Amino acid sequence: MPRLSKRVLSLQESAIRKLDATTRARTHVHFHRVNIGQPDVPTPAPLIDAIRGFQPRVLGYGQASGEPACREAAATYHRRWCPELEASHVAVTTGGSEALLFAFTVACDPGDVLLAPEPYYTNYNGFASICGASIRPLRTHLSQGFALPSDQELDAAVDERVKGLVVANPGNPTGAVYGRSELQRLVNWALRHRKLLIVDEVYRQIWLDEAPCSILEFPEAAEVAICVDSLSKTWSACGLRLGFLISRNALLMEKVERLGQARLGPQPLAQHIGMAALTLPESVYEDQRELYRERVNVLVDGLSAIDGVEVSRPRGAFYLMARLPVEDTEAFARYLAADFEHEGESFVVAPGSGFYADPGRGRDEVRLAAVLQPEVLHRVAQLMETALSRYRNL
Ligand SMILES: Cc1ncc(COP(=O)(O)O)c(C=O)c1O
User: Fold this and answer.
1) Which of 4, 175, 205, 309 has its CA 20 to 30 A from that of 274?
2) How far is the CA of 288 from the centre of ligand 1 (A)?
3) Is 325 exposed, middle or buried (0-12, 13-18, 19+ CB in 10 A)?
4) Band of pLDDT at residue 15, cut at 50, 70 and 90
5) Which CATH architecture has domain 45-278?
6) Is the distance from the beta carbon of residue 62 to the nearest atom of ligand 1 less than 6 Å?
7) Per-domain residue ranges for the chain?
């Protein structure tokens, strides 16, 4: 048996997908999937219509950093936050995921470290492992609304292995939304220490109270900032696999172009559809926000009413972390997937520990995604109450 690389052997199994096989085997149970950020919201019609308008004679390779028209459309869209943005500042990628992988690759050599406020999007671990790097967590707390670490803590975390900091705004799994003063602190930190600041803004348009501040809004961060965006969530187009890496650092973009050359170009059909998405009227985003406000409220209200459950109300994205009155939510999630059923229904949750660097943490937390119809989310909260009471009596 040939030896596989330490990097792949160290890859974590996705906490979110772990329970899939178990639930698929129980065909008589209807599972409500609140474990993954896959909205059931119909993709806007202009995106579907654009598929019909794509009739190439040859499905050829495109340019490494994306088609010029798609890069220009993305730059125009992002000028809302950065009026001086140009098409050359945008690289088109296969989802936000590839943009993150490229960002981590330009930032890190093997052995290097990226800081990340914890809990964080679990795939950051995977992207870091692929680069031979790792994530060093900076703790934030549910009870404090996941506020960012203080300047002192940020400074103290820096050593020669740290190459930057990655943060999602709005946050997954936290639902935290960071405003201007918090982003300014991160920008100052990056400038003070000459580190990269990778800001994952794939949920930027999905905020519930106040809009997040974009990293693109800071002219002084041009050299240190990388912004990641994606069409997956805002446009309910997860399967499109279209995203963007945006930076005003010319050398960095030259290297991103080389990474793009190595995998040839991003998908032409996706770019064609993406251009239709990026020119939709502002009302589309407001409609999405309204829709998620209702869904999040239903889920928060339903869960908060359960004895012993503590919920942090998200301010953006569509996830929430809930603390449950159980010792180990991995075991509880397995119980939901493998044993629990009420009137033919069950639901799937993502155990909290998957969002922490140290799997000993977040063991009484779960992440839920308010991506289903409000009445289904109401039902999920009812099922949670039933499941918790049965589980505790086992
Ligand atoms: C915080 C965050 N970043 C990036 C992604 C990747 O999204 P995609 O590759 O679909 O654009 C996700 C997906 O759930 C996410 O939650």
Assistant:
1) 175
2) 17
3) middle
4) low
5) 3-Layer(aba) Sandwich (3.40)
6) no
7) 6-42+283-392, 45-278
Q: Are 167 and 116 in contact (CB under 8 A)?
A: yes
Å from CA of 210 to ligand 1 middle: 21
| Cis omega (within 30 of 0) for bond into 119 | yes
Closest atom, ligand 1, to C-alpha of 37: 14
Pick the closest to residue 183 from 156, 206, 210 (CA basis).
Answer: 210
Residue 112 CA to residue 126 CA, distance in Å, equals 14
Q: What is the pLDDT of residues 187-244, one digit of tens each?
A: 999 999 999 999 999 999 999 999 999 999 999 999 999 999 999 999 999 999 999 9
Write the CA distances from 22 to 27, 270, 289, integer angstroms: 10, 32, 33
Best mutation site among 123, 201, 206, 235 for ligand 1 pocket (most ligand atoms within 8 Å of CB):
123
Q: Characterise 390 by phi-psi region: left (phi > 0), alpha (psi -120 to 50), beta (else).
A: alpha
CATH of the domain spanning 6-42+283-392: 3.90.1150.10
DSSP string of 105-134, one letter each residue: HHH--TT-EEEEEES--THHHHHHHHTT-E
Q: Is the four-CA dihedral 88, 94, 99, 101 of positive or negative sign? A: negative
Q: Is the pLDDT of residue 287 over 70?
A: yes
Nearest to 325 by CA among 307, 352, 339: 307
